[in-house]
Automatic annotation (TrEMBL):
<protein>
    <submittedName>
        <fullName>Uncharacterized protein</fullName>
    </submittedName>
</protein>
<dbReference type="GO" id="GO:0005802">
    <property type="term" value="C:trans-Golgi network"/>
</dbReference>
<dbReference type="GO" id="GO:0140326">
    <property type="term" value="F:ATPase-coupled intramembrane lipid transporter activity"/>
</dbReference>
<dbReference type="GO" id="GO:0005886">
    <property type="term" value="C:plasma membrane"/>
</dbReference>
<dbReference type="InterPro" id="IPR023214">
    <property type="entry name" value="HAD_sf"/>
</dbReference>
<dbReference type="InterPro" id="IPR036412">
    <property type="entry name" value="HAD-like_sf"/>
</dbReference>
<dbReference type="GO" id="GO:0007030">
    <property type="term" value="P:Golgi organization"/>
</dbReference>
<dbReference type="GO" id="GO:0045332">
    <property type="term" value="P:phospholipid translocation"/>
</dbReference>
Length: 114
């Protein structure tokens, strides 16, 4: 049995993405099914820099996985508000809010990690 997306879902999500609207989806599906849905509606794409999967069983594991994802994202080049490309300062608290990350990422969190 295959669940199909309603007509127009991928196009609607693409329009929301073009408007720079951030989309979050909460589903009770298994990880594989949820990711397949994400790819079929173009929320997840092969051309993304990274799709991070958080699958820790303990609070410590989840925190470590989230921290690792954040460090990988912030470790890449960013564009500052003045337009200069620079290396991210992973230790600066406000730096992520003052600069735009020039890449696309997705974060998939499974149920036991929530």
């Amino acid at each position: 049995v295959e669940d199909k997306l309603q007509d127009g879902v991928p196009e609607t999500i693409a329009c929301l993405n073009l408007a720079d609207i951030k989309i979050w989806v909460l589903t009770g599906d298994k990880l594989e099914t949820a990711m397949n849905i994400g790819y079929s509606c173009n929320m997840l794409r092969d051309d993304m820099n990274e799709v991070f999967i958080i699958s820790g069983y303990t609070l410590l594991e989840v925190k470590q996985q989230l921290r690792s994802a954040k460090e990988q994202i912030l470790g890449l080049s960013r564009v500052s508000s003045s337009g200069d490309v620079e290396k991210a300062d992973m230790f600066g608290e406000d730096s992520v809010f003052e600069e735009t990350i020039i890449a696309e990422y997705a974060l998939v969190i499974n149920g036991h990690s929530l």
